[in-house]
């Protein structure tokens, strides 16, 4: 089995797509992944079943969401077990019970806000929940350089952000999380950085020693390590360059890099990634990485083919 990392940040890779999908099922591509308090794994994907729930050994527990979503993009588990699904194809955020009962919808399906208007939503990407009070933050993502804050019951509170490269500006608000103190971390993907804000949207700092930062997970206990999934940051002419992503970086709360998982360029060989689009970590320290390998690579191959899109990195203990 291939290993990545060194020292206490050493991981064994699952190899092919993780999870024991029955015959005839497919991810096509897993776009997001989240774990609940029992270490059950929720995979949001564009294949046969939009939500597939596994136990930590990869056994299927249940599926749901068929016929509900236009383009699955982001999934988040709230502290009460609620499941938030962000659909950037129909411009909505939906809240479900763990078994798929719809509880709340933010936005109106198939009614996009005017691009770059600052109004919710135009191709939203992800949602974060403040574990202290249940407040919601929506990364509104591809055609709107904004973060929108809502109360736990879905009441709109305020927004911040605009297009640009300065602090407080965004170039694809792609992923968003909060930590145990309520700080808001934003993967500002095409600006190749993480920006950090307080709960009122006030800019605090940024981490810029990254490739195209696409997804982020922050632990709420222990060291509260920060895990960042990064796309390839080079161009076609240096596609075999090293240390440009795709990779997973592990940082401490001060932004110091503790480990980089993979120095290699993109590829399907064991120990490499395609496009880490979603990331989560379970209570054992194991990392799950969802990759949009079909959109970025497989669909452009001749002939097109589906590639690995969900890996589990098991921490060596």
Identify low-pLDDT runs: none
Q: Tell me, what's the shape?
A: globular
Alpha carbon gyration radius: 18 Å
Structural class: mainly beta
Order of helices and strands: EEEEEEEEEEEEEEEEEEEEEEEEEEHE
Instruction: Determine the N-to-C terminus distance.
Output: 15 Å
Number of strand elements: 27
| Main sheet summary | 5 strands, antiparallel
Mean pLDDT: 96
Strands side by side in the biggest sheet: 1-2-27-26-25
Helix content: under 10%
Question: Number of helical runs?
Answer: 1
Describe this entry's structure for a reader.
The protein has 317 residues and is mainly beta. It is 1% helix and 43% strand. The protein contains 1 helix and 27 strands. The chain has one helix at residues 293-296; strands at 3-6, 9-13, 30-35, 41-45, 51-54, 60-64, 72-77, 83-87, 92-96, 102-106, 124-129, 136-140, 146-150, 156-160, 162-163, 169-170, 173-178, 184-188, 193-197, 203-207, 212-218, 226-231, 247-251, 257-261, 276-281, 287-291, 310-315. The protein has a 5-stranded antiparallel beta sheet, with no helix packed on it. The longest helix is centred in the C-terminal third of the chain and has 4 residues, at 293-296. The protein is globular.
């Amino acid at each position: 089995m291939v290993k990545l990392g060194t020292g206490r940040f050493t991981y064994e890779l699952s190899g092919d797509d993780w999870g024991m999908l029955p015959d005839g099922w497919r991810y096509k591509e897993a776009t997001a992944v989240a774990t609940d308090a029992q270490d059950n794994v929720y995979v949001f994907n564009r294949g046969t079943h939009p939500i597939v729930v596994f136990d930590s050994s990869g056994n299927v527990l249940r599926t749901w969401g068929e016929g509900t979503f236009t383009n699955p993009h982001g999934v988040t588990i709230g502290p009460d077990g609620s499941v938030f699904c962000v659909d950037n194809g129909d411009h909505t955020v939906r809240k479900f019970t763990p078994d798929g009962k719809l509880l709340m919808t933010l936005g109106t399906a198939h009614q996009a806000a005017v691009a770059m208007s600052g109004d919710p939503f135009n191709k939203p990407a992800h949602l974060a929940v403040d574990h202290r009070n249940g407040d919601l933050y929506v990364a509104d993502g591809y055609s709107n350089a904004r973060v929108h804050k809502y109360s736990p019951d879905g009441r709109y509170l305020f927004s911040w952000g605009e297009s640009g490269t300065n602090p407080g500006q965004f170039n694809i608000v792609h992923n968003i999380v909060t930590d145990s103190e309520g700080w808001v971390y934003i993967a500002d993907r095409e600006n190749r950085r993480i920006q950090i804000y307080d709960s009122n949207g006030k800019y605090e700092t940024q981490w810029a020693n990254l490739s195209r930062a696409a997804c982020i997970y922050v632990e709420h206990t222990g060291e509260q390590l920060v895990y960042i999934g990064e796309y390839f940051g080079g161009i076609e002419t240096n596609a075999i360059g090293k240390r440009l992503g795709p990779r997973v970086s592990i940082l401490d709360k001060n932004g110091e890099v503790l480990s980089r998982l993979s120095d290699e360029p993109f590829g399907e060989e064991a120990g490499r990634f395609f496009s880490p689009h979603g990331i989560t970590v379970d209570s054992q320290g194991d990392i799950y990485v969802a990759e949009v390998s079909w959109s970025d690579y497989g669909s452009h191959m001749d002939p097109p083919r589906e590639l690995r899109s969900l890996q589990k990195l098991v921490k060596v203990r």
